[in-house]
Design goal:
265 residues, Carbamate kinase, 4-stranded mixed β-sheet
């Protein structure tokens, strides 16, 4: 199998995170077209796609506190509400991919992953690996997960990628969001950071910022920290944090161009 790339379409990119349950259908359509074009012109491209929950899952999750744990009947009712909203957004994503002619297959994390204290404990990856081998595009997304300690929780796409990266050993993780890069002075966004390493991050972590709108799984600081941790565990891994809002950027990143901020060992 050729080198695997992980791509995340951020929730802030594919939804309006300031308006509950609002997909950005025009953006989804354009991003799907860029993925389709790159697949056609880059033989052997092996891609795992993930997407955030944006104004869908995060809105319901914040209301019910699902990520912290589930124990009561009311909590489990909230658990299913978060599931419904995350699944609803996934259907919009899958429809855009289908309309672009991409043979994509959604693999719902809640049906395959068991967590322990908010991290993946077990995940049968054979269906995902078989999808890749068949030339399909496997799609995962932030979802509710049963947890051995918390009862239930939520795992973000980055949480899922953390486990997948150790198993599949990608060389690149592409995180497409609204921002052009990671900024040292978010939200003023006048001091762009070209590269972040474990050494440089300590002086930056207080200023790299959160996120636009609701986000129960952490903002930019959390994302950078997870990618730095992975870079220590996966040889040669680089994560690229860039804007998918600019037409053509996603195609350029998929073809290997360095955009935005690079996170590496």
């Amino acid at each position: 199998m050729s080198e695997i790339i992980f791509l995340k379409l951020g929730g802030s990119l594919i939804t309006d995170k300031t308006r509950p349950y609002t997909p950005r259908l025009d953006v989804l359509s354009r991003l799907a077209a860029e993925i389709a074009d790159t697949r056609r012109t880059t033989p052997g491209l092996s891609l795992v796609l993930g997407h955030g929950s944006g104004s869908f899952g995060h809105t319901a999750a914040k209301k019910h506190g699902t990520r912290e744990g589930v124990a009561s009947p009311e909590g489990w009712q909230g658990f299913t509400e978060v599931w419904r909203q995350a699944s609803a957004l996934n259907r919009y994503v899958m429809q855009a991919l289908a309309e672009a002619g991409i043979p994509a297959l959604a693999l719902a994390p809640v049906s395959a992953v068991i967590a322990r204290e908010g991290r993946v404990a077990r995940w049968n990856l054979e269906p995902l690996q078989r999808a890749l081998a068949a030339g399909l595009l496997p799609v995962v997304y932030g979802d509710v997960i049963f947890d051995e300690v918390r009862g239930g929780t939520i795992l973000s796409t980055e949480d899922l990628f953390e486990h997948l990266a150790v198993e599949l050993q990608p060389k690149r993780i592409l995180l497409a969001g609204l921002e052009d890069a990671v900024w040292a002075d978010f939200p003023a966004n006048t001091q762009r950071i070209e590269r972040i390493t474990a050494k440089s991050f300590e002086s930056l972590r207080a200023s790299v910022g959160g996120s636009h709108g609701a986000d129960v799984t952490g903002g930019m600081e959390s994302k950078v920290r997870q990618m730095l941790d992975l870079a220590q565990r996966v040889p040669g891994l680089q994560a690229h944090i860039f804007s998918g809002e600019i037409p053509g950027n996603l195609s350029r990143a998929l073809r290997g161009e360095n955009l935005g901020t690079i996170v590496s060992r």
